[in-house]
Amino acid sequence: MDIDLITNILYATLRTGTPLILIALGEMVCEKSGVLNLGQEGMLLVGAVVGFIAAYVTGSYGLGVALAMIGGSAMALLFGWLSITLATNQIATGLALTIFGGGLSAFIGASYVGIGLEGIQSIYIPVLSDIPVIGRLLFQHDPLVYLSFVLFLAIYWVFRSTRLGLSIRAVGENPEAANAIGIPVQTIRYGAVLFGGAMTGMAGAYLSLVYTPMWTEGMSAGRGWIALALVVFASWKAERIMLGAWLFGFASILHLVLQGTRFEVHPNVMAMLPYVATILVLVWLSSDAAKTKMSAPRSIGQPFKPMV
């Protein structure tokens, strides 16, 4: 392969991994607070359809992204009310949210299926974008790719160096002890859930306004589930999420790469690669369940009701 092909592959890997980074970082924050939200797929679809419709009607991509984040947060708020306030089973509630989000997005977007938009374009940075190889890899992306890097750095810093990060971890490890020393457990958990919803909504906007600037029912294609597996695969560490998202992103485009090299495998088989990779990762993790349990927040999935 020549250098141009390698550059294009790496460029596509970064783009394909971006929605996974956004979803997984948001879910990591949510799970760090002790809340397991399996509704990522539903929130992703709602964010995608709301963002697309808003951008199509108003002509503003910025407003589309903002409303997609609000749509994702609204879904997350519903999940939070059920699982945090009413203390319902988080796994069942998350699955219900996924089903509800899929149906709601299909209903809302029924009149917009197949409509195309120009989409959010890549930014051209004078001089830097013209640098051979590096210019295309680092300085020719759309704003949401760069925003994903900023969010990664912010989340990494929060959990390593701030009292807020310490409070989130404390709530996720032992909510009773955190409550006893005055940390508002319910407020922290609501904030984490809403943040995760906003991140997933932004990822939905990325799909419908950047990656494939149009709306089609079920366009998330399982990315929400892949991101959930990615959080566990990364042991709830932000830096590993970045690397894992790019790995899954590369697996997603590998079938296109191999077709370009005339590799004799049916394209549908190659298209299954990211999902096969997800299954293999989960099987590998289950082989060392003790290590995975040690990395996970201790109170994840457990409801908490403060003493009155």
Automatic annotation (TrEMBL):
**CDD domains membership:** TM_PBP1_transp_TpRbsC_like
What are the protein's UniProt keywords? Answer: Cell membrane, Membrane, Transmembrane, Transmembrane helix
A single cellular component GO annotation: plasma membrane
MF terms from GO for this chain are: transmembrane transporter activity
Topological type in the membrane: Multi-pass membrane protein
Q: Which residues cross the membrane?
A: 6-26, 38-57, 63-82, 94-115, 143-159, 190-212, 243-261, 267-285
As for subcellular location, the record says: Cell inner membrane
The record's PANTHER family line, in alphabetical order, gives:
ABC TRANSPORTER PERMEASE PROTEIN, SUGAR ABC TRANSPORTER INTEGRAL MEMBRANE PROTEIN-RELATED
- Protein name, entry field: ABC transporter permease
Give the classification, highest ranks: Bacteria, Pseudomonadati, Pseudomonadota, Gammaproteobacteria, Oceanospirillales
